[in-house]
Amino acid sequence: MRNRIGTVVLILWTIISVPTSAQALDVDWKVYGWASVDGDSACFYDATGIVRRSDGHIRVWAKCLLLRDMESINKGDLNKRITENSAQKVARYYVPPITLVDERIDSDRSIDITVLEEIANLSNIEPVAKIFYEINCSEGMLQELSISFRSNGKNGSRNKPGDWKYIPPESNGARLQKINCR
Questions:
Q1: What is the pLDDT of residue 38?
Q2: Model pTM?
Q3: Numbers of helices and strands, H then E, in the chain
Q4: What radius of gyration, in Å, describes the C-alpha atoms of the chain?
Q5: How many CA atoms lie within 13 A of 160 on its CB side?
Q6: Whole-angstrom Cα distance, residue 21 to residue 65?
Q7: Residue 73: its pLDDT value, please?
């Protein structure tokens, strides 16, 4: 990831004044946490797909990608596009939403997270987990409406809502709630 930061900074100067067109994506994956699902993973939520219900609940899709899979994208046109998009965001003072709820994230880590988000947006990496959450913002509760995962070469899924659970502090669920329940 460090070599990506250097690359982002280097090309930042060459594209800082170049106008960019809006990227039309069906999803916009944003980091909200980390997990150990068949290896160390970064977890993302789809910022454009959030459904805000009249009862104060939100519904949001999330996915976790293995860090080793993300780090393996280091050559070719996809890597160039990821690096360029990340540099453009940094040049425009983009701040990943997780930095607003986790004060431990410094500017270097913020750049790393921006790169991870671009990898999640542009690559075809198979998630180790896909989860559809419903969050009761006012009560601080969360339930999994649907989940699919792979671990140790095996796949599993559940498409029935799980039980409502209170969201523990300093958890991925707490960060997801803080970012999206405003």
A1: 81
A2: 0.84
A3: 5, 8
A4: 17
A5: 1
A6: 27
A7: 86
